[in-house]
Amino acid sequence: MSDRYTNKRLIMLLEKYVLWSIGELSDTEERKLREMAPHLGRSFSARGTWQEVVASVMEFPPDMPATFNAMWLRNLEIASEHGAAMTPQRFAEMVVDENFPM
Does the global pTM surpass 0.85? Predict the structure, then answer.
């Protein structure tokens, strides 16, 4: 685990949530998170799927995945206009860093 995530498990979960929202979460990561859902629920005093636990902890509105997806599509356009590339992971990190400072 990189220093970015040391003692900051929620940052990693938020990034995974963003990746899931934009359709870029790997099947392997999705499976791991699905298996972790009961533990996450206990840790954060929330119930449901891992996505529901994250949304509950962060008090996300129901349309948050669509919001993240719209942001992703717009950032892809901006990157393309500037001849740059935007990876899904970099986008997730950017969203978390700019919107959920921890």
Answer: yes
